[in-house]
Amino acid sequence: MRIKDIRLTNWIFSVWPIFLILSQKALIPVQILSFLISKKEKLMIYFFLFFFISGSFLTLFWLNDSLKNEFGYNHFIGFILFIISVVLIGHSYKVNFDFDLKWITLFNFISIVLAILFFILNLDFSFFRGLNFIRGSDGVIHRVFIETTPLLILNDYRSFKKKYLNIVLFLLTFIYVFVLCKSFFIIIFFVWKLWRDYKVLIMQKFWYFLPLILISVLLLGVELLSYVLRADLALSIVFKYNQLLSIISMVSGDYLYFGRGFGFVIDEFVTDFNQPYQIEMQLPMLFLQMGFFGFLLLASFIFFILYFSDVEKPIQSTLMYFSIGFVNPWLFLPIWFLTCCYFFRK
């Protein structure tokens, strides 16, 4: 790999330690620079998409009740920054896929090592962003979650020339996903991606992989059982169900078409006081905020960016992107969109 070949493309989004201090969207100026100096394939298409979509949502901002909402501007600005990120990620994917995936894998390796090291040392990072140590009432760390966790799904375990490094990377990723992170959503996509990429090898050497498969099934079963037996599971399901019912009850009349505006908040469901307009049921909430036409525009935008970027299976990637909207408020997280871009490509 020659230094002059290194481009500042979307691999920089996987440099997790930076996110302890900066947000992903703070790196947009670097991405814009990369956008301008990289290959010019279909460059005007991406410019057109950006300006057309931004203008369309700006029109929506004035048409619905965004101006009446206390958080309207903050929500809208964050959304536009996400739109810019999506355009930049799509263009970067188009011109530099293989190179980016190597960088993503390399920095994922660094991220996992650091996360496990911080966990073992029990360091206090509560004053930083981008790293969550979820502790129980006993003060013990029950879960570890780093901001770039979704990207770990994409690791290429054939990236390194030395096979033992690929094995170490896989084992560390496996430990993080099943033992530290313990996100059922991440586990499902992690296992699915492994099967998609290595099913031929697994079938050819089934007995070689059998112990690992049995351990995975055991850990998955334990995680599922602990998830079902969680004391707060029923409360979590009821809470989300109530969120959904409240949102549906508010989608009526004129609000059906243009929504209640960016920044609209349902006070009783606020969990993040910095961004009270984003809740776990983010997808239904977006429909309520944007209305039918705004949501249709967003869905079309995500699909066409994936399509113009030559992402494999753009329909499935679009569905995967929106699937998170019923679990966590990640829909405006560039990391999650980036994960969806690469998931179905071998």
Structure description:
The N terminus is likely disordered. Helices cover 62% and strands 3% of the residues. The chain is built from eleven helices and two strands. It has a two-stranded antiparallel sheet with strand order 1-2. Helix 3 crosses helix 9. The protein is globular and about 60 Å long. By secondary structure, the protein is mainly α. The two termini are 21 Å apart.
Distance between the termini: 21 Å
Task: Characterize the largest beta sheet: strand count, sense, and whether it forms a barrel.
Answer: 2 strands, antiparallel
Shape: globular
The number of helical segments is 11
Supply the helix-strand structural class: mainly alpha
Q: How many beta-strand runs?
A: 2
What is the rounded Rg?
A: 21 Å
**How would you write the strand order of the largest sheet?**
1-2
**Unreliably modeled segments:** 1-6
Can you give the helix content as a percent range?
Answer: 55-70%
Mean pLDDT: 80
- Beta percentage is under 5%
| Secondary-structure element series | HHHEEHHHHHHHH
Keywords:
11 helices; two-stranded antiparallel sheet; mainly alpha; single chain; 346 residues; 3% strand
Please provide a brief summary of the model:
This protein has 11 helices and 2 strands; from the N terminus they run αααββαααααααα.
List the helices and strands and how they pair.
Layout lengths: L27 H10 L5 H21 L8 H50 L9 E5 L5 E6 L16 H19 L2 H21 L1 H24 L3 H18 L4 H4 L23 H27 L5 H10 L10 H10 L3
Helix pairs in contact: 1-3, 2-3, 2-9, 3-4, 3-9, 3-11, 5-6, 9-10, 10-11
